[in-house]
Amino acid sequence: MSSTGSTYGDIHRYEPARESTAAAIAIVLLTVIEVVFVFMFTYGLVNGWGLSDTGNMFLGGILAVIFIDLAFILALYRKEFLPDVVIVKKRRRKWEDLYIREEDVDGETLGTDAWEQVKRAVYPYYKR
């Protein structure tokens, strides 16, 4: 669905989410796996697996799997259950972001002493 509105905040394009059942089942299964790995990491941390070299690497691997699994859960959720919305925003020109006027884009000499030149080199765009 598209609209032709051009005022700020108008929805330009809205595509609803697919909300597939297979994605919901995959998210539930990945969440169960996530809980198992979090339990394993907590159990290993409490029992002192991290005190040996191999146990420390094992805990690091489990922690990596936890975050990778979480990334897959979030990616599936974003792709399958969040709508795709494009909102009209204001297009700004380069000099508007720098707080200077259009006629001052090329710059001007503002000071001759060394301290004024250092101030301009550190923070070149003052609000006017």
UniProtKB/TrEMBL annotation:
Keyword entries, A-Z: Membrane, Transmembrane, Transmembrane helix
InterPro entries from the UniProt entry: DUF7318
Transmembrane segments: 21-46, 58-77
Pfam families (alphabetical): DUF7318
Record keyword Transmembrane helix present: yes
Name of this protein: Uncharacterized protein
Organism of derivation: Halobaculum roseum
